[in-house]
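User: I'm new to structure prediction. If I give you an amino acid sequence, what do you actually give back? Let's try with this one:
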Amino acid sequence: MNSSSNIHSNTPCVSSTDQIISQRFLIGLLCYFAAHIFLRTVVSSSLETDEAEQVLFSQWLRASYLSKPPLYTWLQILFFKLFGTNVLALSLLKNGLLFSTYAFVFAGARLLFNDARLAVLATLSLLLIPQISWESQRDLTHSILVTALSAMSFYVVLRLLQSQCSRDYVWLGVAIGFGTLAKYNFALFIAAVLITLLTYARGRSVLSDRRALLTLAAVLIIVLPYAGWVVFHLDSVTSSLHDLDIGPSNYFVKGTGRLIYVTLMFLGPLCLVYLLLFPRGFSMILRHHPMHRTSFPVQRYFLALFCLLWVMILVWRVTYFKDRWMQPLFFLFPLYFFTYVKDTSSHPRASRVFLALALLTASTILVMMPARIVLGPSLGYYTAFNFPYAALADKIEEQCSVPNMILADSQLDAGNIRLQLPDSLVLASNLTGLDSDRRSAEGCLVAFWKSTKTDGMPDRLKTFLRNEVRVAPHQFNIVYHDLPYKYADKEHVRVGIAVMQPPD
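Assistant: Good question. You get back a string of structure tokens that encode the predicted 3D arrangement of the chain. For your 504 residues, that looks like this:
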């Protein structure tokens, strides 16, 4: 086969048809995520773990939040200031970032393939990756932000490869700087991109251009203040390294096995669809015969990425990887695969089936996301969205109209109750070292917990009250309430509420 006659060039040439397809596709994406915002806002005012964490942490402007970089929480604070402390502000930020991810992937695919139809298929492929389409909507925060910034970075890199412009060098620095403040695994993504650029002449010319100093300057301006803080707080930043399960004797086998497993779980459903509808794409991959002459060799990116991951296993003895950690690393896989697919006109039936499947998946997610909350209790399935936090807040206000401080037994409960009572300081029993907040102990104090097994305040709440708030637990008056779950009036949860009124 003559490669020169079968590889499609990506020379920019935008037709009016491609422009119409692009506009309609982006409008469709906007409507899809707007529908998610609407449904999320009207179905339940309760929160899952990550969203509750953001509501809780947004009470403070800090450089780090439990070893996590601060950018998402800073953005959430801004959205709360603009729209109020409510589910709408949470959903606007999340779905705005998800829309940005899809839009940047689509824009990048347009530059990579110069084919709007192929770009649509590549972007809709994200819907067939459950970690991105389902889990991101269900309960993720930092992973969504870092994926959006990774997609933005990739798009700007493609623009630089097409036409080296000073403005794009600055934008790349902005994307890299904010990506660093979003989540630490962004470093793996950008390292793999830079290594890929070093492997061919056009990429090296982008990096060696003196205007790359603009990128470096933008990165330093954004990152240096945070880096200075990190130097003096290494213990806080590295406190979550145990998640990597570092150091067992069989680290290479265990780490490699886990990496293979996570990769298959992340990409398996999408690859199965590709195999059924575009089997020739896999044969082209095995023969290393790309069908498009692209400005960025995505296959080299994945080679560089897996080399970096194996370095983590070999050098740092990392043996554990989570699905969500792969989200900002693997989202480019659809672009990699469609590099080996000629065009939609060569696979008209498969393209139509794929489009229908992607739209069916999107519709199913849009229906199932709220349905699991509304219908789940009738099947014995309960989530945090069904917990009656609004009713609990009413009971708290009956005991103390404006609590100065509310102490919860977990971050999930703390974030949820703060969403209902945003004027009160809310703490969780596992958050220590909050000396600046002890002034709130002068007013009405409330503590609450789920009393599912035995009555009485849990020991961790008592310990927190003694050590952090400097009050004795026996000073509280305790009442219990049985509250019905949302969408399940026959099922109740027993909640203990302890109140200490200020002295007259």
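You can read the tokens as a compact description of the fold. Here is one thing that stands out. The radius of gyration is 25 Å.
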